[in-house]
Write a structure and sequence with these properties.
Largest interface: A-B, 40 and 25 residues
CATH superfamily of chain A: Aldolase class I
CATH class of chain A: Alpha Beta
Structural class of chain B: mainly beta
Pfam family, one (chain A): ThiG
Shape of chain A: globular
Strand content of chain A: 15-25%
Shape of chain B: globular
Number of strands of chain A: 10
Pfam families (chain B): ThiS (PF02597)
CATH architecture of chain B: Roll
Distance between the termini of chain A: 54 Å
Function (chain A): Catalyzes the rearrangement of 1-deoxy-D-xylulose 5-phosphate (DXP) to produce the thiazole phosphate moiety of thiamine. Sulfur is provided by the thiocarboxylate moiety of the carrier protein ThiS. In vitro, sulfur can be provided by H(2)S.
Protein name (chain B): Sulfur carrier protein ThiS
CATH superfamily of chain B: Beta-grasp domain
Strand content of chain B: 25-35%
GO cellular component, one term (chain A): cytoplasm
Number of strands of chain B: 5
Oligomer: heterodimer
Number of domains of chain A: 1
Radius of gyration of chain A: 20 Å
Amino acid sequence: MLKIGPYEFSSRLLLGTGKYPNFDIQKEAIEVSESEILTFAVRRMNIFDANQPNFLEKLDLEKYKLLPNTAGASTAEEAVRIAKLSRASGLCDMIKVEVIGCQKTLLPDPIETLKATEELLKEGFIVLTYTSDDVLLAKRLGELGCHAIMPGASPIGSGQGIINPLNLSFIIEQSDVPVIIDAGVGTPSDAAIAMELGADAVLLNTAVSGAKDPVKMAKAMKLAIEAGRLGYEAGRIPIKRYASASSPMEGMSIG
Amino acid sequence: MELLINNDKIKIPDEIGNVSVLLEHFQLDKHIVIVEVNGVILDKTNHRDTRLSDGDKIEIVHFVGGG
């Protein structure tokens, strides 16, 4: 089970809800993924278009935990405000802290991220913080009492996969709270590798929503995450320099 | 009266006295929306008690797809 704060989940896949071709594909992809945690953003509403469709209203909200993000914030203060707005909906008390420091790389601002996390913990939120793969920053977030640490595998939406497995493994090893690999995952094998490293879960969006067949990719990601987790729990063999025969050497009917 | 809603100046009938009625006016009351008035974020239960006056700065936000 994945435990985040007071909540428990069977699925280790957290799914973003951005950029799907349409709501029907999105709904089906979410169902097939078996994800129990959905992320989304907070934005101004077009008040002159009351009938604009909203994906949340198409979902059975009883089935999912909602994880709004603070995307759009570039300071701790903005992130805290977005978090408070999302909680005022009465639908959620979890927040994904995302404080972007650079619009080109979408890498998080470490100082503002730390400040926002601290403030939101004080305000009683269940805080999941998106961070870089900086090992010491992840440590500081853990010390603050963050409910989950979410280091990026590579830049958001880049699909570059896991570019620093060593740092991620250090973060996983030192952490007392769940580590969720967030951002940059492109393929099911990327997700499986994240889980094999010992991550507690994977959060992804574009890899599914931007796939040629998002529903099929949602299933592939679910299976990859399950496979990676099982592999991690099973414990891999050590890597050897030379071959090691699988068949016995005794009793050969040759020579 | 004139309100600043989501950074746009918008004229509304004076009889719209509180946030609840404002949402009904724009037919937003059935949707998941969150309202902030002059920097104060409102719980849904406070919509009817929050009175509006000319020049108020209002943010109306909702949830959209995101990662």
